[in-house]
Amino acid sequence: MPIVAPSLLASNFLRLQDEANMLNASEADWFHLDVMDGRFVPNISFGLPIIQQLRKATTKVLDVHLMIEEPEKYAEAFKQAGADILTVHYEACTHLHRNIQQIKNLGMKAGVALNPHTAIGLLENILQDVDMVLIMSVNPGFGGQHFIPQTLEKVRLLKQMIIQKGLSTLIEIDGGVTLENASAIVQAGADVLVAGSTVFNAVNPLETIAALKNS
Ligand code: DX5
Ligand code: ZN
């Protein structure tokens, strides 16, 4: 069964406690938290204070996706805010290896995210150091976009690379995940499904999460 990580970007921020309670009562495994700086991506979302509050609202894993430049400046603050997994973008890190070591030394799991145009092969010399690879299946910055079909091939390729190297790196898919495409994504090799609008715009979010879990 895949790990299901609803993205709170699509939640109602005025009712964050209720949204957290709903996820706590659901089969969701992780909270996916999208931090945007208005520089790396053309949108600003939320930051440390919201994550601090969510830390008090759940014991589930806080999976923090940093869509920001210079993530090394903030890694320690995200640890203090309660992040369990910290993912940085390949395209935002000149010194990716150093950034990954920093995150792990702070006691968090480290992820690297790839934009849709970034090739899997570029991970050749970093894959053994990361706990998770987040493959963007939309261009980062906004929820509610359509899944880019070529992503499936990237997932298959990455899965092969992980197996060849004898690693247990998780593959997370983020963007445009729906009840219709979730099974194909899992079949291609994804371990973690992020879903924002599919979960929070659903008439019954609990059932939708359960359905994603059974993909
Ligand atoms: C996009 C974010 C995603 C987003 C997914 O930049 O990284 O996590 O919230 O939203 P949906 O599932 O609606 O595509
Ligand atoms: Zn995300």
TrEMBL record:
- Pfam families with a match to the protein in the record: Ribul_P_3_epim (PF00834)
Question: Catalyzes what?
Answer: D-ribulose 5-phosphate = D-xylulose 5-phosphate
The record's annotation in InterPro entries points to: Aldolase_TIM, Ribul_P_3_epim, Ribul_P_3_epim-like, RibuloseP-bd_barrel
Q: Which domain of life is it from?
A: Bacteria
**Which residues take part in binding substrate?**
7, 65, 141-144, 174-176, 196-197
Q: Where is the active site?
A: 34, 174
Q: Which intervals of the chain form a coiled coil?
A: none
Q: What is its EC number?
A: 5.1.3.1
Q: In which pathway does it act?
A: Carbohydrate degradation
Judged by the first EC level, this protein's enzyme class is isomerase
> Which GO terms fall under molecular function for this chain's record?
D-ribulose-phosphate 3-epimerase activity
Q: Which UniProt keywords apply?
A: Carbohydrate metabolism, Isomerase, Metal-binding
- Write down the required cofactor(s): Co(2+); a divalent metal cation; Fe(2+); Mn(2+)
Q: How is the cofactor bound?
A: Binds 1 divalent metal cation per subunit.
Give binding positions for a divalent metal cation. Answer: 32, 34, 65, 174
Function as written in the Swiss-Prot or TrEMBL entry:
Catalyzes the reversible epimerization of D-ribulose 5-phosphate to D-xylulose 5-phosphate.
Its family? Belongs to the ribulose-phosphate 3-epimerase family.
- Protein known as: Ribulose-phosphate 3-epimerase
Species the sequence originates in: Parasediminibacterium paludis
